[in-house]
Structures are given as structure tokens and as C-alpha cells.
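for the writeup, i need someone to sanity check this before i put it in the appendix. the sequnce is what the collaborator sent (i think, or maybe the updated version? ugh). structure was predicted straight from it, no edits. if anything looks off just tell me and ill rerun, i have time this weekend
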Amino acid sequence: MIKFVQCVRRKPGMSKQAFAEEWAKYAETARAIAAASEGLRCVTTTPLRVEQNFEIMQERGTKAPYDGMVEIWWVRENDVVAFMDSGAGDKLIDELRRAQEAFMDLPNCSFFFATEDA
């Protein structure tokens, strides 16, 4: 199983409401990329606004949770490589990149490919 994971922080000064609006549009584009590339699954998540998250940060000395996460899953690495090499998703990928630049604090985000460990 191959995953593309995005851990996202909103731009400084952007309200949570404005982020939520942009995030909803971004999630649609991520799902479109997953469908076009024969991805198995696309999941978008946002942190719960619960006291336990604050307590974990305080106890462990960690940073605040990301504002959102995206995971797109494929069965084989070749599936995503073939899609990217084909050019079929160039328009969608460009749309995703423009959105990232518009509302994400890119230096404090993390994007990476990963594999599940058995």
C-alpha cells in the first residue's frame, strides 16, 4: 500500500473559518486526483477541538495539531507513478498546487509518500 500524505497548516493570520472553506474545496480536488489515478481511498481529516488535544501538547511539549491532513492510497507504487508520468492529472495537480500556495503555510506543512508497515 502506497500513500501520499499531506500534513497542513493554514497561513498565519488566516481564520479557522476561512481555512475550513478553502479546505472543503481542496478536499474535492484531492478526491478527484484519487479517482483519476485509480487511488483506493482519499481521506481528509481535521483535528477535534477538544481539551485532550491541548493536554497532550502541554504534557508532551509538542506543537499544535495540523489544521488538516490528506491521505491518498494506492495499491501499488506503479499506479501513482504511471498516473503522474502520463500527464493525465496535470490540470488537477496544478489546481492543488495553486490552492496550497493560496492558503497553506507551506514551510510548516509536510508532504510525503509512505508505505504501510505490516
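Helices lie at 16-36, 51-60, 77-86, 90-103. The CA atoms of residues 87 and 93 lie 10 Å apart.
thx in advance!!
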